[in-house]
């Protein structure tokens, strides 16, 4: 089973809200997921990205691959360098 870390849309029309999840890559975007790692709210002033770094490093250590969007969000927030240096 290949695990991906990607976004799951929860928000309503014109008010996007996303969960950051670990999911089997064969499942649908908004289908069942294995673990919830955080959330992303693109239209909120203040903290847009909230993520549990311990869970993230656990899943990356297990071989999970982040999607392109997740990778860009982690790099923007500076979390990617912390996780990469912890390996």
List keywords for this structure.
single chain; 87 residues; alpha+beta; S16 Ribosomal Protein, Chain: A; five-stranded mixed β-sheet; 3 helices; 5 strands; 31% helix
Give an account of the 3D structure:
By secondary structure, the chain is α+β, with helices and mostly antiparallel strands. It contains 3 helices and 5 strands; from the N terminus they run ββββαβαα. A 5-stranded mixed sheet has the order 4-3-2-1-5. The model has no long low-confidence stretch (mean pLDDT 87).
What profile does the largest beta sheet have? 5 strands, mixed
Order of helices and strands: EEEEHEHH
Distance between the termini: 22 Å
Annotation field: number of helices:
3
CATH architecture: 2-Layer Sandwich
**Secondary structure: helix percent:** 25-40%
pLDDT below 50 for ≥5 consecutive residues: which ranges?
none
What CATH first level would be assigned? Alpha Beta
Assign an overall shape.
flat
Secondary-structure class = alpha+beta
User: Whole-number radius of gyration?
Assistant: 13 Å
Classified in CATH, the superfamily is Ribosomal protein S16
Number of domains: 1
Order of strands in the sheet with the most strands? Answer: 4-3-2-1-5
Number of strands: 5
Overall mean confidence score, pLDDT: 87
- CATH topology, by name, is S16 Ribosomal Protein, Chain: A
User: Per DSSP, what share of the residues sits in E-state strands of 2 or more residues?
Assistant: 25-35%
